[in-house]
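INFO  loader      accepted 1 record
INFO  loader      residues=246
INFO  predictor   begin
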Amino acid sequence: MHKLAELIKKSSYCVFMSGAGISTLSKIPDFRGSNGLYTKFDADKIFDLEYFHKDPSYFYTHAKELIYNLGSKQPNIIHNTLADMEKKGFVKAVITQNIDMLHNRAGSVNVIDIHGSPAVHHCTMCNRAYSFDEIYQSLEKEIIPHCKDCNGLIKPDITFFGEMLDQAALDKAIEASSKADLFVVIGSSLVVHPAAGLPFYSLRSGGKLVIINKMQTPLDDHACIRYYELEEVFGYLTVFFEKYYI
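INFO  predictor   done
INFO  writer      dumping tokens
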């Protein structure tokens, strides 16, 4: 772990990419683990755009555990350490596949939400924008939120299956990955594309890849360092970087 800390310290442009595995420490289940969210509901339905328009109650009912109870979920040691390392100049960007907004709540500034974010919702008819708090409050009274102006269906700004990724976010992620002389993957199984291909932009530019994930990934053979225990690694990084002041 000291080797990783030194790599981060000496890096000129370090980028982290996070997946659902980091949020399990905040009591948010991952997707593909033995007790993951995909064991509790149909993954082909909850994030499918066509099914959302057919039966939006399926998404809003099941997403309460994943998204709309986030007020009770707090950033953990990983989110907090990354935010601190960014403030001190050691981390240039955090690309996240997560939609739990915990990086932002921890204080990270340059967060690239590759799969979108529920921080903002839009009416699917008139495009009126709604904040997360507005939708959170409406779901305490109704199963499906509807637009105050036109009564249209409201959808969070997260990317569903059947939707294109936000091009601006994808371009920003590719740019950051291409600049990275150190690319650290944390809590991602690296099976969902195009996010899973982002480490290759760093590798092709001569960057080094580090993977920290409990499960094996398709890119393990490309990593110069491979760890399995996120909490242990970040416990070390927290102590290592505490001595550096803002």
